[in-house]
Structure formats: structure tokens, C-alpha cells
Specification:
Layout: E1 14-23, E2 30-40, E3 45-49, H1 56-63, E4 71-76, E5 79-80, H2 86-95, E6 96-99, H3 113-125, H4 129-142, H5 147-150, H6 160-174, E7 178-182, H7 190-206, E8 210-215, H8 218-224, E9 227-232, E10 235-241, H9 242-247, H10 252-259, H11 264-267
Bound molecules: adenosine-5'-triphosphate.
Keywords: ATP-binding, Nucleotide-binding
Pfam family, one: ABC_tran
InterPro entries: AAA+_ATPase, ABC_transporter-like_ATP-bd, ABC_transporter-like_CS, P-loop_NTPase
Length: 270
Amino acid sequence: MNAPSSAPGSQPLVEAKGLTRVFGHGANAVRAVDDVSFTLGRQEVVTIVGESGSGKSTLARLVLRLLEPTGGTLHLAGRDVTALKGRELRSYWRDVQAVFQDPFSSFNQFFTVRRLLGRSLRLATGTGGDQGETMMTQALEHVGLTGADVLDKWPHQLSGGQRQRVMIARALMMQPRILVADEATSMLDASLRANILNVLGDLRRDHDMTILFITHDIGQACYVSDRVLVMCQGELVEHGPTDQVIFDPQHEYTRRLLADVPRLHENILD
Ligand SMILES: Nc1ncnc2c1ncn2[C@@H]1O[C@H](COP(=O)(O)OP(=O)(O)OP(=O)(O)O)[C@@H](O)[C@H]1O
């Protein structure tokens, strides 16, 4: 399938070509991601949407270079990053940050929020002390939390939604070029979710950030993204500008996803 792109002529920030990931062998092999190609332009918000098991998280992990592809290539700003290792891979992880569905697993259980955020900030930017504290507090305020409420808490003392917001605040502080948000708002209630989606929109504008948003909920895709890529059983079955995919879906699978969202415009606040 041709690489879908919204910015013909300009070099994409991310270019995935034929990305493939197979788990297992022989009769038990699962093609979790099967020959998927796409681009992300600078400051674009692109959503990957699909049902559970369609391969979204595997694709996210490939883009994050947390998993090795079985086939295909990945480029960042024209540079082949498919096989980066060691120090180069760590430097890639400064450019590409993630917020996951279950942020509990990404927390060190023995770090308070202050230590978690402070450590990330020092590693990414070298900032500490009072300036670091100010940056942490500001990032937390961006996601509707106050430093006084959460900085001295341990992960188990936070709700799922608070943990998700702390991870989004962490990603904000690191100022990556690309944010991969995998079901990053799944634990938030409707009004908070809309709020966080707006924060993500601001980030792209104010911090020149590119966002790959991953969700099973095509309603959220509609709210947040410039383009939508639809995944089904590891394959990209449809892609295009959000309005086009939502209002003129070409693939039967996309129509089915849309049929599950009868009141698309209200869905975000349901
Ligand atoms: N480590 C693994 N080993 C074996 N199979 C895996 C592994 N990770 C994922 N899979 C399989 O790959 C397919 C895609 O899984 P993936 O988690 O990427 O889907 P998803 O669309 O993100 O689903 P969900 O929305 O439920 O998280 C599934 O069939 C899954 O069982």
C-alpha cells in the first residue's frame, strides 16, 4: 500500500515503509503488523484507529523502537532509525516519547511523582533545582493537576486518570518531537478527556510537536486528528484526512467502526 501523506513534496518527519511484525513461528505465527506504510508530517496529529487486536499497540511500539520490526524500515527526518542501538537508540527516545494506556506499568513503584518527573527532566534537559520544580509544576497544571497535590505521592496513591495525566505531564516536560499516545485518555472521564485532547492540540502548535494518537474510538480520532489511519488485522485498510474517512468511509470495516458511534459529535462528551 502506498504511504499515506498529507504533505506532498515536503520531507515527512516520520516515514514507515512496509513495517511488519510477526510474533511466533509456523502455524502459530501472528502477523500483528503487516506491511504498514505511512508518514507523519511536522505538527501533524495522526490517529491510528482499530478494534482490539488490530495491531495498533504493536505499531506504536515499532514506532517507539521498543520492538524490532520483522520487516520494513522506519525513518526519522530522513535518517534510517530501523536498527538503532545503544546510545543512538537512547537519543532517539529523547525525540520520541510515549504515553501508554496503563501508565502504572511505566512507573517505578518506589519513586514519588517528584522523583519520577525530576529524574526524567534532568536526563532530558539537564534542568534541576528550583527551575526544575517550576517546570514540573507547570507541566502538571497543563493537565489539570497541582504540584502540591501529587508531587509527593507514590504511584499507588494516585487514581488511574491521575497517573495517566502525570505521564502526559512528563511527556510535555521532555518536549519530544513526536508524542505517541496509546489509548492515553482511556482512564479519564469525558470532560477531562476533552481537556487533555485540547492540551495535545496546543502542544503541536506551541511546541512544534507531532502526535501519533492511538485509539479504538473513532469518535476521539474525529475530535483530535488531521488524518486517520484505519487498522484491521494488522493491515492498514483505509487512510485519509479525518473528515474524508469519517464522512465518506470507503472500507466496510471503517463503516462498521463508525456504526458503533451513532452520535459521533457528541461521543467525546458521552
Ligand atoms: N508479545 C506478543 N506475543 C504474541 N502475540 C502478540 C504479542 N503482542 C501482540 N500480539 C498479538 O498481536 C495482535 C495485535 O495486538 P496489539 O496489542 O498490537 O493490538 P491492539 O490493536 O493494540 O489491541 P488493544 O486495543 O486490545 O490493545 C494480537 O493478535 C495480539 O494477540
